[in-house]
Amino acid sequence: xxxxxxxxxxxxxxxGFVVNYGSTFTINCSISGTPPPNIIYWxxxxxxxxxxxxxxxxxxxxITLDEPSLTINFASxxxxxxxxxxxxxxxxxxxxxxxxxxxxGGLPVKHTPSANYSVVYGDxxxxxxxxxxxxxxxxxxxxxxNNGIYTTLNKGAVGTDGIAIHxxxxxxxxxxxxxxxxxxxxxxxxxxxxxxxxxxxxxxGGTPLVTIPVSRYFSNxxxxxxxxxxxxxxxxxxxxxxxxxxxxxxxxxNAESPGTRGSTINxxxxxxxxxxxxxxxxxxxxxxxxxxxGHSQYISLTVHGGVPVARIGAPAYSVIxxxxxxxxxxxxxxxxxxxxxxxxxxxxxxxTINSLAVGTTDMTLNVPSLTIQFPTxxxxxTYTCFSANAIGIxxxxxTILAVTGGRPIATIEKMKYIANYGDTITLQCKVTSIPSYSxxxxxxISEGSITNITTGYQGISGVTLKxxxxxxEFxxxxxxxxxxxxxxxxxxxxxxxxxxxxxxxxxxxxxxEKALHIAFVGFSLEIECSIQxxxxxxxxxxxxxxxxxxxxxxxxxxxxxGMTVNNPNLFIPKVDIFMGGEYIxxxxxxxxxxxxxxTTLIVKYANDELDVSTTxxxxxxxxxxTAPEISQSPLPEEISRHETSSSDxxxxxxxxxxxxxxxxxxxYVTETVGVDRTDNISDTFMKKAGNDSGNNSGxxxxxxx
Length: 705
Known about the structure:
The N and C termini lie far apart (about 160 Å). By secondary structure, this protein is an all-beta fold. The chain has 6 domains: about 100 residues, Immunoglobulin-like (Sandwich); about 80 residues, Immunoglobulins (Immunoglobulin-like); about 100 residues, Immunoglobulins (Immunoglobulin-like, Sandwich); about 100 residues, Immunoglobulins (Immunoglobulin-like); about 100 residues, Immunoglobulins (Immunoglobulin-like, Sandwich); about 200 residues, Immunoglobulins (Immunoglobulin-like, Sandwich).
């Protein structure tokens, strides 16, 4: 068998062809030769630009020793060109002929037949954009540039039509100056987006041009006068009307106004068929189209002669009760008027008012206005100004006078106020009054008694016309009650709703921490007592209970110290054997008297324990003893009225009553005898009890209530 001839590879490919954009195509390549090739690649020539395609290139297949053909997965415009398959072996490189590949399709092709559009303001315009696309057209939009401000228009944009795949042109239904600018049409398919050439849109037109050939007219009373007007307008479709200006008050006149002719597109001039004095004034011709309104210069019309013309200042007047009001009237007359008067109509009753009417002024030839010095509700009604000259009587249009006002309206901010004793509190009050109120005060109602509070009332501020609220600088229980704010004006008196003021205060709360105290005869003892009181307590005293006998211990009682407002403790400088028993601390403030729970005092001798909470005792002397033995019966375990806390009203009230109302006849007084009281005297006073000196001659007086 003969050996194969060794040579460079022989490479053959098919001829060129046309492919559609987006399709997959393959350029077949066959290679022969010995030895076989060891390198395969392709070359692409596109407009003289060579590019090398190797195996593994993104978007391709093939270009390998096993599969030298070239497959392009998605044909695009850039894939057009001349392709050559190249193979290399040990003897050299072989090339195929070039295959020309043409890709059909790509970016949309657009055609804009006109680069400039000119349209009249308010008209419709269509800017044409023709689009051919393969692959198929998928999206259309437009972009407008108005002095650097870019606007994107999509299908359905307000005031537009078109901008669609089947109709890519842009239609603006009613063009305005804001639509002027440069426009581009954008068309998109899967190959990309293409922009059209620029199209310029200009808008023509403006407000109507209105001119008058004559600026001044003179006419006699009762004649016909025509004031001429000429209008030029782009766009057309305008309307014509006139404005009459008298002393700043403008009246519109159109084709429908009675007594006139003209004011139309075909005849913009104004003709007044029968002029009167009231037609005198300044006139302006106006024309309105889609762009805006144009107006002429003013025309002056002067009318001579006729009955007096009376003009009122306003169609309605409103005045506050009691405030002077002038109803303005201006009279023009040729010949001059010789009489002025007014008519008032109220509930179909007509009254004539002249310069002699009580409570009024003016209504003269020089000042025809009507001034009411002090309007009341009876002055309400419809008023008409009348004037007469040699030709006849003229009158104004009617005007309505309304008198407003009423009693003051006083409102309070809250229905309930709560304050701590000694606080500063403000009861808020707002007053609305037409006419203005002239008097302001508060009323306090407490236990059926009424107190008027005015400015200058001691301990308060406010209660003035500028500040109607009531401020109490230092509240006490006296200030508790019901309050209301009262204001008066010329019409009457207005009251607020009632509000309550509650003062937080209570009898003193008193605590003795220790329920049991033990003391030795001859030694000192202090029973501590703490007091919380709002308001501050003003008096402190104690009670001692022995054998159901209460002894009142007040400041100054012999044998006891303390019992002051600042130091309520009970101090015994030298304990006596008879000082044992139950002790209660009491304190009084503005609200009442509070008391502590009882503490028990057990008195002992230094070398023995002794409970002398009762006076039933015996002294037994035994040999060898240095101190007496004392037997006693125990204190009652519970005495209900003495065991209550500060919240127990009964004992507090009893003690207060004793303190304030005790008399010698109301006391059961026992004199303790047989005891040396030289040093250990426990004097007890609830009141002077008929002895102003306060001394009991060295005797202990115990009071049973």
